[in-house]
Amino acid sequence: MKKTVLTLLILGQVTFAQHNSQNKNTTSEKDSTKVENLEEVFVTANRTATLRKETPVAISKLTAKTINETKAVALYEIANKVPGVLMVNLGNEQHMMSIRQPMTTNAYYLYLEDGLSIRPMGIFNHNALLEINQFNLQNIEVVKGPASSLYGPEAVGGTINLISIKPSIDPEFKFGIQADQWGYRRIQAAGGATVGKVGFHVSGISSLQKNGWMTFSDYRKDNINARIDYNINTNTRLISNTMYGQYYSDMSGGVNETDFYNRDYKSTSDFTYRKSDALRTRLTLEHDWNDNAGSYITAYYRDNKLGQNPSYGIKWSPTINPTKAAGEVNSNNFKSYGAIAQHTQKFDFLNTKIVGGVLYDYSPVTYWAYLLEMKANLNPGLPGKQTVNYYEITAERPDVKLANYSADIFNKAAYAQMSINPINKLVITAGARYDNLKVNYNNALDNSTGTKIYDKPTFKVGINYNPAKFTGIYANYAQGFAPPGITSIFRAKPGTGGTTGKPAEFYYNLEPATFNNYEMGGWLAVLNGKLIFDYAVYYMEGKNELLNVKLPDNSTDYRSVGETRHKGIEFGGNYKMLSNQLNIRFGGTVAEHTFIDFKVSDKPTDVLQNLDGKEMPNAPKWSGNSEVSYYPNWLPKFRTSLEWQSVGSYYQDQVNTVKYTGYDIFNFRAGYEWKGIEIYGNIINITDKLYAYNVSRGNLTTSQPAYLAAAPRTFLVGLQYNFSFKK
Q1: Which phi and psi angles does 705 have, rounded to 5°?
Q2: Can you give the residue ranges of the TonB-dependent receptor plug domain (predicted)?
Q3: How far apart are CA 535 and CA 520, in angstroms?
Q4: Positive or negative CA dihedral for 317, 323, 324, 325?
Q5: Which of 159, 497, 530, 697 is 20 to 30 A from 387 in CA distance terms?
Q6: Rounded to an integer, what distance in angstroms lies between the CA atom of residue 637 and that of residue 428?
Q7: Which 3 state secondary structure label does DSSP give 473?
Q8: What would the pLDDT profile of 579-603 be if each residue is shown by its tens digit?
Q9: Greater confidence, 550 or 176?
Q10: pLDDT tens digits, residue range 483-533?
Q11: In this model, does residue 464 exceed pLDDT 70?
């Protein structure tokens, strides 16, 4: 602990240069419902503070007010309020994502913390957001669609920027507790102030789940964030920010169909787990040369250890050998040493603005996985139709490696973006980035060493036209780029290595996925700003998307040769009534995700050869989130809201034979604050609906579905004390 504190004080975390922009534009959040909605400032879409009306992308902001009123246990409760976003709860803050993609764990999303990626390129983890401290969020910005021209690989389906709370001018402190009837507890505290030239903010949470509604579903999470701002002078700032977090969770996994519909929430294992130990620290020096020029340089360090005995890694076949199964234990550890520098320059000529920067990242990584031999204890059933009651480990086999490699990852990048205002009300934006991702590897399973290089330039161009103060439209073309995760490359192919007697074979030939996105959209604020509406229409072509093909024993084969198509409409709006006492928020997306040309087998004997023309699995054509909130004038500081979350039907398998019907649920929230004391309560899933966050299965007729069951009706209560000493 002493070492952690020392690291916190010395190194800190650097916030992107956007922080200075945020500090100067705090009023935009307060005025987000006025006619001047297009004056709202965003920092993610252009890496610097930019008005919405000058941003040719689909972007949304979740404000501090929304975050504070949601009182979320997990981040998905907040993120799903953004139109076009479906963050899928996998339990205990684990998750996967759907933004212009099916529900997936693929590396098509970029998760940023104050503008800097949580993970280095090539080491994507779909659960990365479980490391976030929800009590440390000022706002969240979501860019939908490719942003690779600014942020590089993995910024394809969407980019989520979690912006942390900055130091307050006056001393502030808040402390809270919350709990539900299923054994969940959380303690949280935060505080900060500015003394002379130095401002600081510290925030921490400690979450604990014991004996929940699902068996074997305990978890614990402890996070602390600390930010220190030093204003050297009026033009120069030094900003540090450090995060340290520990996480441990049982992995209960999915339940079979019979147990799901009987509400028998019973895990088939009592040994699976996920654990994380993460440190991120940054230091930024910002300087304003004049009113038209500013620069920053950031140095950062990451240290992450992720260990698992994953429930999804259990392989079992009811037709091959129904009483035997296999699992694994794995560990993925990396460190990162990097720097990023950026300069912003404005010119009077055509109101030109140029943003340019360079990045260097060095991330050594080690990964290993070994075999677990298991016995499958079956429920009664017909041969080939059995389900597993529970698994038990019969032997740990650290001598049988499923993967064992080390690698040094080097990412070098340069980017630039320019916007001009050639005529009144018209803004043109163009940008480009070049990434060179080099992987020097040592694969112990086949005693090979080598280098993999993934390099690519990506481009974007967009226009904004704002014919009136209350409306604006935009159009853009953007490219996306995502190299295969190195964990996929160096995992032995099914049927090779281990105890098979065959030499291990690997996925050295996986190709980077590339995307071309065409989009148009706009905004409208009418009725004196009381009704605000925005929309986006997109068409995205993908090539060489990484496809996980489920085999009969639940093992995974990877493919990255083919074409896909993603198209949809996203819309959202806000309507204030009764002198702003009643607020109606609505939003959703209608989308279609299709395999255009995708070969999944090279063997003439295989029944399934390709997926051409089929819908991608886990891809609902509809999802939406809407909410009605009431803030009565007769009882100031009281709030109440009713939220509707809707997810349409989708195919469970890649061959489009079985669908899940989707779900509609309702959540209720209420809170009241008196003299700094806030009491609140949430009812999640008011009607106690039986539903699953996700349902998936293999492609055979004998494949068994796995239902990721959602929680029954949940009552959350909380108490929080908010103190502010204003001069």
Answers
A1: -75, 150
A2: 53-159
A3: 8
A4: positive
A5: 497
A6: 43
A7: strand
A8: 999 999 999 999 999 999 888 777 7
A9: 176
A10: 998 999 998 888 888 888 888 889 999 999 999 999 999 999 999 889 999
A11: yes
Quick: pLDDT tens for 75-121: 999 999 999 999 999 999 999 999 999 999 999 999 999 999 999 98
Q: CA gyration radius for the chain?
A: 25
Q: With CA atoms as reference, report the closest residue to 362 among 325, 294, 410, 431.
A: 410
At which residue do the structure tokens 């089929």 appear?
614
Q: Are strands 706-709 and 692-696 parallel, antiparallel or unpaired?
A: antiparallel
Tell me if 408 sits within 8 A of 345, measured CB to CB: no
Residue type, 346: K
Going by C-beta distance under 8 Å and a sequence separation of 6 or more, which residues neighbour residue 675? none
For 210-292, strand residue ranges (E) read: 219-231, 236-250, 273-290
Separation of alpha carbons 209 and 217, rounded Å:
8
Dig out the tokens for 579 from the structure.
């002198």
- Asked whether the beta carbons of 101 and 126 are under 8 A apart, the reply is no
Strand pairing category for 236-250 and 273-290: antiparallel
| Ramachandran category for residue 37: left, alpha or beta (phi over 0 → left; psi -120 to 50 → alpha) | alpha
* Token pair in block for residue 329: 């234990």
Domain span including residue 35 = 2-724
What one-character DSSP code corresponds to residue 351? G
Pairing state between β 86-91 and 513-526: unpaired
Is it the case that residue 363 has pLDDT exceeding 80?
Answer: yes
**Rounded to whole angstroms, what are the CA distances from 386 to 92, 114, 319, 380?**
29, 49, 9, 6
CA distance to 31, 134, 176, 304, per residue, from 162 (Å) = 21, 9, 21, 19
Helix (H, G, I), strand (E, B) or coil at 76: helix
**Structure tokens, 620:** 């609902």
**Nearest alpha-carbon partner for 409 in 482, 357, 336:** 336
Who wins on pLDDT, 683 or 387?
A: 683
User: How many angstroms separate the Cα of 715 from the Cα of each of 471, 669, 687, 711?
Assistant: 41, 10, 12, 11
CB 540 within 8 A of CB 482: no
Q: Where are the beta strands (DSSP E) in 322-351?
A: 324-347
The least confident of 28-42, 498-512, 517-531, 560-574 is: 28-42
CB atoms within 10 A of CB 603: 8
Angstrom distances, CA of residue 624 to CA of 586, 646, 688: 8, 5, 19
Whether the pLDDT of residue 384 is over 70: the answer is no
pTM above 0.90, yes or no: yes
Question: Which CATH number fits the domain that encloses residue 331?
Answer: 2.40.170.20
According to the 3-state scheme, what is the secondary structure of 644-696? EEEECCEECCCCCCCEECCEEEEEEEEEEEECCEEEEEEEECCCCCCCEEEEE
Q: What is the count of structural domains for the chain?
A: 1
Q: Give the pairing type, strands 109-113 and 116-117.
A: antiparallel
Residue 681, token pair as written in the block? 């309560």
| pLDDT tens readout for residues 247-300 | 999 999 889 999 999 999 999 999 999 999 999 999 999 999 999 999 999 999
- Nearest alpha-carbon partner for 375 in 390, 385, 354, 364: 390
Residue 30's CB: how many other CB atoms inside 10 A? Answer: 11
Question: What is the rounded end-to-end Cα distance, in angstroms, of the chain?
Answer: 36
Percent of the chain residues past pLDDT 90, beyond the cut = 79
pLDDT tens for residues 193-202? 999 999 999 9
List of E strands, 53-147: 58-62, 86-91, 94-98, 109-113, 116-117, 137-144
Buried b (16+ CB within 10 A) or exposed e, 467-506: eeebbbbbbbebbbbbbbbbbbbbbbbbeebbeeeeebeb
Helix (H, G, I), strand (E, B) or coil at 28: helix
Measure the CA–CA gap between 400 and 369, rounded to whole angstroms.
Answer: 9
CB 151 within 8 A of CB 178: no
Token pair, residue 504, equals: 């291990």
Count of residues in the chain: 727
